Amino acid sequence: MNHTIETILQHRSIRQFKVEPIEAEKLQLILACANAASTSSFIQCSSIIRVTNKSNRALLAELAGGQSYVESAAEFLVFCADFNRHQQIHPQAQLGFAEQTLIGAVDTALMGQNAMLAAESMGLGGVYIGGIRNNPQQVTELLELPKHVLPLFGMCLGYPAKVPEQKPRLPLDIVVHQDSYQSIDKSVLAKYDNEISRYYASRNRNNKSTSWSEQITSTLSKESRPFMLEYIQAQGFSLK
């Protein structure tokens, strides 16, 4: 097993950071690795907003649901799907297609994962912040995002002050399908549910008693962020 694979398999979400900043050369390497991610048809439709203004950080932490580490992390990056750049180059660009929304989301996620892996390989840690979509219009206004730019997720980065337990992932027997889609193996799922229940019960903090199936049932029994479609369309995405 090489260092790259070890880094990937040791991933944890870090929410407690040391005060020390990230060295400028390390940050540049992280951003360069993000920019090296694959991009559909070489469209390069992603942008990163590095938020350094302290008051903006504090407001983003609040808008993201009171996640204090958005404010305390050494760096906070907002990853956006961006077709405004293309419109600046070609004012008559045909935008607003659903496929462009998918391309923007995929390309930006690949960029984010490259950034996270690069950071972790250098002893840093981080956590993705989907909570910026809790109040997307306010985030858009705060970051002065023009039309055809969609803030998808944030990322806290810094030196870990504490490394939490690793959360078990679904077994490959459930995730990987051979040749065609296969129904879930209930016995494999039951073993995983028990593993997750034991994990939650044994955590040093935020203990709870639930299985993965119970958690999914609760999460998917209600609509999450019902305002997103209207906001996405207002930003010029998924109009047709």
**What kind of assembly state do the chains in view correspond to?**
single chain
Helix/strand class: alpha+beta
What's the SSE pattern? HHEHHEHHEHEHHHH
Beta percentage is 5-15%
For the largest beta-sheet, the strand count, sense and barrel status come to: 4 strands, antiparallel
**Fraction of residues in H or I helices:** 40-55%
Domain module count: 2
CATH-defined fold name of the largest domain: NADH Oxidase
As laid out across the biggest beta sheet, the strand order is 1-2-4-3
> What's the total number of strands?
4
Number of helices: 11
Mean of pLDDT: 96
Radius of gyration equals: 19 Å
Given as residue ranges, the uncertain stretches (5+ residues, pLDDT < 50) are: none
CATH hierarchy class name of the largest domain: Alpha Beta
- Architecture of the largest domain, according to CATH? 3-Layer(aba) Sandwich
